């Protein structure tokens, strides 16, 4: 049931405030403790973990990239993220002190399933982050954190991705709590900020018409570039993936800091370049990314900048600014991806594509 929407994908994008709220529901106890009942791995075992490997495919892999930044920062445990299809065949170093985190919306992706089977054969514990109750990946894992996005029909993941991010934040906080590196107040502060995400997502959705207008303006460009840094890098990759998946357009995501090491060579006059700007803060990331906007603008790119609502420093170099509500850096991808989803969905539907069932793609790929 599309409840008045033209496509399931659009409906699912607009369901995200609810999906995120549901994924957070019941995770935080009255006495200020994070509760993840589904984690059936004992605290002793979780304290022994000396390495985390996150695996997934497609969108789930990009959620894993965000998780790496978050989990390392909060827990100080070394964290790798790898495409499930690569992990299995490179003789990875995994043992009983390795924690594997498998991210899969469907819970049926063959590459991810093979990867966790391999990890468990080496004695590693596996936690699945999954949206589908009773699917194969959670059944074959030691523990599961369910996202509560509800059924996702559109092949290109949207609410699946946002809720995977939420589950990754919860896992990072939980590990930090169990290992005693983060305490009540700090955890409470992040939980409060997470609880404030649904209304912030809603504000971005309320601005959909502006993004749709941009999609119509930029419809006939050959190539699209997405730049981001730190957790904005996976968000940029996800923005490019959406455009490939449903608009069948050539889109590339790059780490903004890599621009001068190659990608800047492809910037042509008139090329749309989306730039995700980190919140202005203590470190220099923000200013470095603002310089990147300047660099591509100087080469004639059409700069579409996603920046915090009170960030005035981007205005001089931005053809268009999409304003993001203020949040801490680590949470920003939850917001930055939303306009990129709206952009891809509108552009692809304007091209006449079936965005729910894009050509050549399947919702879950059950062969390797
Ligand atoms: C791909 C889908 O085949 O699988 C992507 O087309 C998806 O949209 C990816 O992100 C991973 O799927 P899952 O179910 O493992 O999260």
Summarize model confidence as the mean pLDDT.
95
Radius of gyration: 20 Å
Strand coverage percent: 15-25%
Biggest sheet, spatial arrangement of strands: 2-1-3-4-5
Bound molecules: 6-O-phosphono-beta-D-glucopyranose
Q: Determine the structural class based on helices, strands and strand pairing.
A: alpha/beta
Q: What's the number of helices? A: 14
Order of helices and strands: HHHEHEHEHEHEHHHHEHEEHEEH
Kindly state the number of beta strands. 10
Function: Catalyzes the first step in hexosamine metabolism, converting fructose-6P into glucosamine-6P using glutamine as a nitrogen source.
Organism: Propionibacterium acidifaciens F0233
GO molecular function, one term: carbohydrate derivative binding
Keywords: Aminotransferase, Cytoplasm, Glutamine amidotransferase, Repeat, Transferase
Would you kindly provide a written description of the structure presented here, covering whatever features stand out?
There is one protein chain. With 368 residues, the chain is of the alpha/beta class. Helix content is 43%, strand content 15%. The chain has helices at 8-14, 16-24, 43-48, 59-75, 84-87, 110-121, 136-139, 159-178, 184-195, 197-206, 208-217, 232-247, 285-298, 332-350, and strands at 51-56, 79-83, 98-104, 125-130, 143-146, 223-228, 250-255, 272-276, 302-308, 320-324. The strands form 2 sheets. A 5-stranded parallel beta sheet has the order 2-1-3-4-5, sandwiched between helices. Strands 7-6-8-9-10 form a 5-stranded parallel beta sheet, sandwiched between helices. Strand 6 (223-228), helix 12 (232-247) and strand 7 form a beta-alpha-beta unit. Helix 4 (59-75) runs antiparallel to helix 12, helix 10 packs parallel to helix 14 (332-350) and helix 11 (208-217) packs across helix 14. The longest helix has 20 residues, at 159-178. The chain is globular, with a radius of gyration of 20 Å. 6-O-phosphono-beta-D-glucopyranose (BG6) is lined by residues 57-60, 104-106, 109, 112, 155-157, 361-362, 364-365.
């Amino acid at each position: 049931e599309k409840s008045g929407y033209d496509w399931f994908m659009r409906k699912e994008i607009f369901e995200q405030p609810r999906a995120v709220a549901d994924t957070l529901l019941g995770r935080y106890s009255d006495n200020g403790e994070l509760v993840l009942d589904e984690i059936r791995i004992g605290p002793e075992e979780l304290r022994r973990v000396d390495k985390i490997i996150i695996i997934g495919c497609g969108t789930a892999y990009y959620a894993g990239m965000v998780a790496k930044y978050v989990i390392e920062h909060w827990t100080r445990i070394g964290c790798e993220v790898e495409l499930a299809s690569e992990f299995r065949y490179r003789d990875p170093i995994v043992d009983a002190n390795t924690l594997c985190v498998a991210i899969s919306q469907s819970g049926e992706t063959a590459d991810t399933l093979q990867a966790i089977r391999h990890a468990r054969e080496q004695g590693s514990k596996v936690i699945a982050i999954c949206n589908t109750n009773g699917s194969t990946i959670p059944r074959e894992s030691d523990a599961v954190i369910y996202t509560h996005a509800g059924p996702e029909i559109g092949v290109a993941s949207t609410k699946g991705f946002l809720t995977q991010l939420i589950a990754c934040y919860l896992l990072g906080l939980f590990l930090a709590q169990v290992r005693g590196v983060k305490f009540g107040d700090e955890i409470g502060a992040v939980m409060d900020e997470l609880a404030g995400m649904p209304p912030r997502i809603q504000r971005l959705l309320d601005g959909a018409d502006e993004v749709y207008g941009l999609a119509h303006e930029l419809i006939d460009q050959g190539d699209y570039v997405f730049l981001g840094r730190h957790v904005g890098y996976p968000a940029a990759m996800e923005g490019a993936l959406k455009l490939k998946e449903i608009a069948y357009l050539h889109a590339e995501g790059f780490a903004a800091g890599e621009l001068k090491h190659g990608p800047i060579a492809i910037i042509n006059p008139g090329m749309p370049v989306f730039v995700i700007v980190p919140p202005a803060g203590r470190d220099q990331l923000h200013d470095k990314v603002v310089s990147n906007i300047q660099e591509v603008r100087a080469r004639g790119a059409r700069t579409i900048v996603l920046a915090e609502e009170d960030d005035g420093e981007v205005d001089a170099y931005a053809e268009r600014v999409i304003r993001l509500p203020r949040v801490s850096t680590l949470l920003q991808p939850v917001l930055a991806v939303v306009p990129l989803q709206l952009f891809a969905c509108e552009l692809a539907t304007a091209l006449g594509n079936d965005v729910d069932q894009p050509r050549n793609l399947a919702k879950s790929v059950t062969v390797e």
